[in-house]
Amino acid sequence: MTSSTLQDRMHDNAQLIRAVQLATRKLASSGNFNLLMKDVLAICVEAVGASGGTIYLHDPSAHRLKFQHVLPEDVREKLPSLDMAEDFGMAGEAFTSRRTVCRDFPEKPQADWNPFEKATGVPVRSMVATPLMMEDEMPIGVVQLINKVDGSFDATDMAVLDTVSAVATMAYMNYRLTEESSRASTLLGMGKVGHDIGNLAASLYATLSFSDMAMHGLKDQLTKRGMDAPTKMYVEALEPMFGDLKSSVDRVVGYSRLISDMSAGRALRANKEVALMSPTIETSGAFLATEARANHVALRFEIDENAPATLHDELYLFRIVQNLVGNAIKAVKETLPDDVQAEPLAEDEDGQMYGEVVVRYWFSNQTHFLEVSDTGPGMTRETAERILSGNARSQWDKGSGSGWGMKIVLELAQTHDAKVTIESELGEGSTFRVAFPHCGD
């Protein structure tokens, strides 16, 4: 073996060792799903000297590769498409064949550029795609890199990517196992609490029913004996109060059953009836008016009272609104000055509002739209996509949470074939929209 060959091999080994060390060190410390995916892509780009690349995760149910990140990041806005079929292009070839694929492309005139090249203005000279997988396992995704800065991708680059992908896959699987463990623990606790709350609420409901019966008996006796005007006013005021209390207890019992079903992994049992959505939306949001005011947040409603009745579960809709409005208040709270945070308003106290949450509901094109907008700090598109995938915890420091509120919204919306979307920009607030298809039967 010549000294030149030996030096080349030592250089290749050093490249591989550096890449594995970097991957192991960085990925072992990634406790955030979004950062994990970014780190994997950045490590791969750096390890083989690529100009840029894209990382995808596999969605088995849709048979698609779901876009996660791209480098350079500003290319994202120019991409002609994001997700792709699991067998499309070189990324699909790498995924389905379970092996790294590497190719060079001859120079060609702009008229012959593919859609990606035309959209980004970047001609592809070389490309390598490697499946994210461990040996003998199904790939979890693909990393696709383009245009090696110095020369073409070679066998050493492919070996580096194979090794980094295995380390990255282990990090990803560890992340998922940790999340599942946390989810199982949380659901177990939620199930026990839900069961206890359900029992207590059922007992309270029985007491209310007896009290309601006693109140009607008292009313009958007073009516027979004759009531003066003040007594009659008080008695008549009690009847709707009992009705409201029963409705509230019904919601508590129903919600405890919902949590029990979710914790046990049972299919959700929506109890749908044809009814107006507007009263439930307004009532649900109004329950949080005191919390909003205490945090210097104005809560406004823009409700279409003329929207037609539609088939839905009143409890599920109530919970969706509460979770969205509650999250919106937390988001706005994040933007409040610290001295304002320390001085919550009393219920009857006048004070300055520093932010706003607006609850909107309208009917258009055979669709019922529920929208909750806030003047909070907003979020990136990546964060919004992570929320919609059910993989996000609360991002607010001053109003932290588990992220279960949005997971519940997504699952409840799914029982109604409703679509949840997010419109948001950093510094511009956020709008969460749920579109329910109309069903009048």
Structure description:
It is elongated, with a radius of gyration of 29 Å. 29% of the residues are buried. By secondary structure, it is of the alpha+beta class. The protein has helices at residues 3-28, 33-48, 89-97, 115-120, 155-225, 229-264, 278-286, 289-294, 314-333, 338-341, 381-388, 404-414; strands at residues 50-59, 64-71, 84-85, 101-104, 126-132, 141-148, 273-275, 297-303, 310-312, 355-364, 367-374, 419-424, 430-437. α7 (278-286) packs across α9. A six-stranded antiparallel beta sheet has the order 3-2-1-6-5-4, with helices on both faces. A five-stranded mixed beta sheet has the order 8-10-11-13-12. β12 and β13 (430-437) form a beta hairpin. The termini are far apart.
Give the beta-strand count: 13
Estimated helix fraction:
40-55%
Strand order of the largest sheet: 3-2-1-6-5-4
Low-confidence parts, pLDDT < 50 over ≥5 residues? 5-10, 396-402
Q: What is the name of the CATH class of the largest domain?
A: Alpha Beta
| Gyration radius over CA | 29 Å
Total helix count?
12
Overall structural domain count: 3
Global mean pLDDT: 80
- Alpha-carbon distance between the two ends: 81 Å
The CATH homologous superfamily of the largest domain is called: GAF domain
Strand residue percentage: 15-25%
- CATH architecture descriptor text of the largest domain: 2-Layer Sandwich
- SSE sequence, one letter per element: HHEEEHEHEEHHEHHEEHHEEHHEE
Q: What fold name stands as the CATH topology of the largest domain?
A: Beta-Lactamase
Comma- or semicolon-separated keywords:
19% strand; 12 helices; Heat Shock Protein 90; alpha+beta; 3 domains; 441 residues; elongated; 13 strands; Beta-Lactamase
